[in-house]
From TrEMBL:
UniProt-listed NCBIfam families: sigma70-ECF
Lineage: Bacteria, Pseudomonadati, Bacteroidota, Flavobacteriia, Flavobacteriales
GO biological process, one term: DNA-templated transcription initiation
GO MF, one example: DNA binding
UniProt protein name: Sigma-70 family RNA polymerase sigma factor
Organism the protein comes from: Allotamlana fucoidanivorans
Amino acid sequence: MSLKQLIENCKINDTKAQGELYKLYANKLFALCLKYSRNRVEAEDNLQDAFLVILKKIEQYTFKGSFEGWIKRITINTVLQRYRSEKVFDLISENQIEDDEVEIDDESLSLDYLLKIIQELPDRYRLVFNLYVLDGYSHKDIADMLNITIGTSKSNLARARQILKQHINQENNSEQSQSL
């Protein structure tokens, strides 16, 4: 069955087609949810919520543009909506922090470790970091999506980078002392 036919069948609430659509995209969307969530359990919840929204809104998809891009945007927005409702952005100072670049030695740090330390970031830092660094959104777009100012977005990104740099430096120092 073609993707177009699968989507058409989902639009008429064909549960078999909905299951196929889930199987087709669950892994990709779970990886996306994992980036924005605090842990695997929360990512699983976010994935389920996102799929409910996708299936609810699938009739709005008009086959213009990438379907995968469309469902990724819904997934990100669904996850961000959870954090907006938790008010993780209420008490944020807009003081600019010096923006550090994080140097990553690809060979010494595992992807699992990087994901773990990103997930451990406070919500407001993790969301801005992921949107800006991993998904390429501008500070203006992030400010609009999260209902914050551009300055707050920049400040949160800088703070996230500082925290990640500290974790990476600690990990590198720990590995160096173990190899002595």
